[in-house]
Design a protein that fits this description.
The chain has helices at residues 2-14, 25-37, 52-57, 65-68, 73-84, 116-124, 130-149, 171-184; strands spanning 17-21, 41-45, 89-93, 159-162, 167-170. It is an alpha/beta fold. The protein is flat.
Length: 187
């Protein structure tokens, strides 16, 4: 039974098609994880040129300028992603990298629990930190794989990652800790 469920989940995953707009550092890590997991195909959209900032945050861009000179971010990332799993079809479509969506975050049916000020900081920030990209990209990849395959319980619409101490909590952990925190508060 377990092997049959695993086979069904793997089959569902291998038939999925993922469209990705914008190839920033976190998205690069997300793409790596879903390609390694064996999705059917990934289409990248980002016509921007490679910049120093992109090079520092996106591990899919090799430091040799001859390998990316004249190519778009999507093309460079496609070339690297193909090497992770040759069974996954990775392609590029022309587009502006999702610039029309860059100031939007889309959430599920429940209202966001993230304060507006934090969202604004996240959306306006231009610098990325590779270790944070790896952690957040990995979590996003894991959650997308769970959603596609139907295996595992997704995070409960909230995840908090503290880059200062490297710890993360989802809403379930926070809800479980609330009685403990409340008991420690002075009356």
């Amino acid at each position: 039974m377990i092997n049959q469920n695993k086979s069904v989940s793997s089959l569902i995953l291998s038939k999925s098609h993922i469209l990705v707009y914008g190839m920033k550092g976190t998205v690069a890590d997300f793409c790596k994880n879903i390609v390694l997991a064996g999705v059917g195909s990934v289409t990248l959209v980002d016509d921007r040129a490679v910049t120093k900032e992109a090079l520092s945050a996106n591990f899919l861009i090799l430091p040799d300028e001859n390998l990316y000179n004249g190519k778009t971010l999507a093309e460079v990332c496609r070339d690297s992603l193909k090497e992770f799993n040759p069974m996954v079809h990775v392609s590029v479509e022309k587009g502006n990298g999702g610039e029309e969506h860059q100031n939007q975050l889309v959430f599920g049916p429940n209202e966001s629990q993230i304060p507006d000020a934090l969202l604004e900081r996240l959306l306006i920030s231009t610098s990325e930190y590779p270790p944070v990209c790896a952690i957040v990209g990995g979590i996003v990849g894991q959650e997308v794989i769970k959603a596609i395959s139907g295996k595992g319980d997704p995070l409960k619409n909230f995840f908090f990652f503290d880059a200062m101490d490297g710890k993360g909590f989802d809403r379930g952990h926070i809800e479980a800790l609330t009685p403990v925190v409340e008991s420690l508060r002075p009356p």
